[in-house]
Specification:
- This protein is an alpha/beta fold and 418 residues long.
- It has a domain at 330-413: GMP Synthetase, Chain A, domain 3 (2-Layer Sandwich), CATH 3.30.300.30.
- The chain has helices at residues 16-35, 40-48, 58-61, 69-79, 116-122, 141-151, 164-173, 183-195, 200-203, 218-228, 337-344, 378-389; strands at residues 67-68, 94-98, 102-106, 129-132, 155-158, 178-181, 208-211, 231-238, 242-246, 254-256, 260-265, 279-285, 295-301, 303-304, 316-317, 322-323, 328-330, 333-335, 350-358, 365-372, 394-397, 411-413.
- The protein has a nine-stranded mixed sheet with strand order 5-4-6-7-8-9-10-15-14, with helices on both faces.
- β17 (328-330) and β18 (333-335) form a beta hairpin.
- α8 crosses α10.
- The radius of gyration is 22 Å and the shape is globular.
Amino acid sequence: MDRTKGYYHDLETDSQSVRTSKQCNAIQDMVKKALSFDGEFRERLASAGVVADEIRSLDDFTSIPVLRKKDLSRLQREKGLAWFLPGVLGTLARIYQSPGPIYDPEGRGPDYWGWTEAFHAAGFRSGDLAQMTFSYHLTPAGLMLEEPLRALGCAVIPAGPGNSSVQLQLMQELPVTAFVGMTSFLKTLGEKARDKGLDPKRDFGLRVAFVAAERLPESLRTEVQDMFGMIIRQGYGTADVGCIAYECPELGGMHLSSRCFVEICDPATGRPVPTGEVGEVVVTPFTPDYPLIRLATGDLSRLDDSDCPCGRTAPKLQGILGRVDDTAKIRGQFVYTAQVAQALSRFPQVLRHQVVVSNDGGKETLTLRIETNGPADHGAIAAGFQEVIKLRPVVVTLGLGETIPEGAPALVDERTYD
């Protein structure tokens, strides 16, 4: 089986002029849909003094103010989810909840989240048995990434996250050829297999992996590919909009998906920056059930529009280079400093706190440093943090004489990537 050839559909090889024309048509359709009901988009245009009838080109479109994720969460709470939708909630397929909290509607159309193109580019093929290790509970990752696998003709084991002993049992007893999840977790499984006297390359049948939700240093990719004797490719997307970009066999970045319009913009103005310059990733998915127009993700990247040997013509994102605000994505979950403060408000003995993220040895660690005025139950604090943030931190109480200075950042990201 050649996992490096072919395309899922012809859109991947459109010329720039054809792709631009199709994107313009799709954008116009999305704008019409978003204007067809009284809701978020109409109010955004009115507040900015933008006249809908004057949006006739891509230049006009980029004058529309962006919608920031923190505002999306706030507006959903204030106005309700229905304020963003052209129809009633009962006409949707599913509604998920992501940290923030943000509700993520899913329409009923095929390949709603647009990941099938990405899985095919990664090397997934009909007949693969895929082990899905993303969560199926509330957050969309598990189901979002399962449906494209089935569309490609793959069978899926809904293993979910964690429980490494069961994960290894599945890989030993079933002919699992494909893995979906985080690279760090796949590495952990390989290390545990070796601890049991197994050889991941010899004793498992993994041939391809699609990974997401965390950064992928080349050193980690090479290590795990060699460990299992497999191909690892990554994708980039969010729970709000689905697939944004994905790697092809040639690597060198992530091709923009054909199912959305992606801009790299100045975080201050929301206007596009020249190709090659760093800016904020702004996405408009072509999903009329939930017409999000110019959603600013908070992620920083840049575009490369040079030719790719794979034959795909869409430009490539050159990785995720940082965050615009004080939010960090840790093991697939966004951590918002406001939510951390909310979680710790239940513990009056905590005077100050600071979240520190590190990745020594390629393993992400979430540490919660606290300054207290008395004894603190680390287990209770970690559980309260996890209840709100969905991640469990290592809690460290500062020693005598140690303090978190007034005005110190609430979140410190010490991760480095090679």
